[in-house]
């Protein structure tokens, strides 16, 4: 659905040796690489190990586009090492193999792509991820009950949206035990726990382009 924004400058991108990949039903004009036919034709077997093991764990694994708070969005390099280290995130915050994680964050952001939907570390391996296309504060508690959600990954304002909602009959009749994320203000934190029950909150902070992460274990 975003290709229409890129198509007018496709020729310029190709002149600059920029490859444009598109996922979804085509047809697409020459120069755009349609991924779906390639995925359909790909074998189920893994390629030989030397084709996918990086030579250096500090090499770039992927680019994550930051929000651009100090200017336009820009690509931050994420190494293979940092990508692997992200696998331990849910173990560090206390998730377990039987948990069901509710994720409504964009998958082009590090919190969604590297922390939310990645395979979990051994202690949390097998945890289920419920992907929501858009966050809905009015549907949140119904979703939690319907899907058996036990862990909610937030950014701070999502919790504020929930606190600002009118009373909901199911807002304390749920299995949510853990909320983890970044940017939760103290007033919203207090209101969230007082209103919605004994949910353990683990506030974290990190930067896509940084090398330090903070965890508030004490609450």
TrEMBL record:
Note the Pfam families from the entry. AMP-binding
The UniProt entry, under SUPFAM superfamilies, shows: Acetyl-CoA synthetase-like (SSF56801)
Q: Which Gene3D superfamilies match?
A: N-terminal domain of ligase-like
Give the superkingdom in one word.
Answer: Eukaryota
Gene Ontology CC: one annotated term: endoplasmic reticulum membrane
Q: Which reaction does it catalyse?
A: tetracosanoate + ATP + CoA = tetracosanoyl-CoA + AMP + diphosphate; a very long-chain fatty acid + ATP + CoA = a very long-chain fatty acyl-CoA + AMP + diphosphate
What InterPro entries does the annotation carry?
Answer: AMP-binding_CS, AMP-dep_synth/lig_dom, ANL_N_sf
- Could you cite one Gene Ontology molecular function of this protein? long-chain fatty acid-CoA ligase activity
Record flagged with keyword Lipid metabolism:
yes
Instruction: Tell me where in this chain the AMP-dependent synthetase/ligase domain is found.
Output: 49-213
> What keywords are assigned to this protein?
Ligase, Lipid metabolism
Q: Which family does it belong to?
A: Belongs to the ATP-dependent AMP-binding enzyme family.
- Protein name as it appears in the record: Long-chain-fatty-acid--CoA ligase
Organism, per UniProt? Crypturellus soui
Organismal lineage: Eukaryota, Metazoa, Chordata, Craniata, Vertebrata
